[in-house]
Design brief:
166 residues, mainly alpha
Length: 166
């Protein structure tokens, strides 16, 4: 019963997260840039020494320098989360082996990354970028790989605990 609850909750989380990704991709270029700039400013405030003491021109230079790396990190992160959620969902199917779970999570996440970028063709000011698909895919692959390694380790430790002592 517990496994079924985790399965349904994790599936809901996967679908909600896909909706979040879709919503970000549906933002027109000006809104997307505005949101990204806000995040970049927060990152700069935390990571750039004495950012708060800089004049506006210097702050703009810092933000411009951080802009692309932060946007690409956001791509990676949102698809890393998707890969992790897919792996948690697949972990609720004990009959599937770890390699197959990795394959399913990876293919599902990569196909969603492709569809997400293709969707942006239809959004004003946005474009489909192969680099973004590759970054998204890297996030999914890393999360699925880590998740499957954790599953293997957890199941191995569990089976060791269940072995009868001689």
């Amino acid at each position: 019963m517990k496994t079924k609850i985790i399965r349904y909750v994790s599936l809901c989380l996967v679908l909600v997260w896909m909706g979040v990704i879709f919503a970000f991709s549906a933002q027109e270029d000006k809104k997307s840039s505005e949101v990204s700039r806000g995040v970049v400013v927060r990152v700069a405030e935390v990571t750039y020494p004495h950012y708060d003491r800089l004049d506006e021109a210097a702050k703009t230079k810092v933000v411009d320098k951080y802009y692309i790396p932060v946007r690409k990190a956001a791509h990676f992160s949102e698809f890393f989360v998707l890969g992790a959620l897919l792996t948690v969902f697949l972990a609720t199917f004990p009959g599937l082996n770890a390699k197959f779970k990795f394959l399913i999570a990876s293919v599902t996440g990569i196909l969603y990354a492709i569809s997400d970028e293709a969707h942006q063709i239809f959004v004003s000011g946005r474009a489909c970028r192969i680099l973004d698909v590759l970054i998204d895919s890297a996030g999914v692959l890393l999360a699925a790989g880590i998740g499957v390694l954790i599953i293997i380790r957890f199941r191995g430790a569990k089976s060791e605990r269940q072995k009868p002592e001689a």
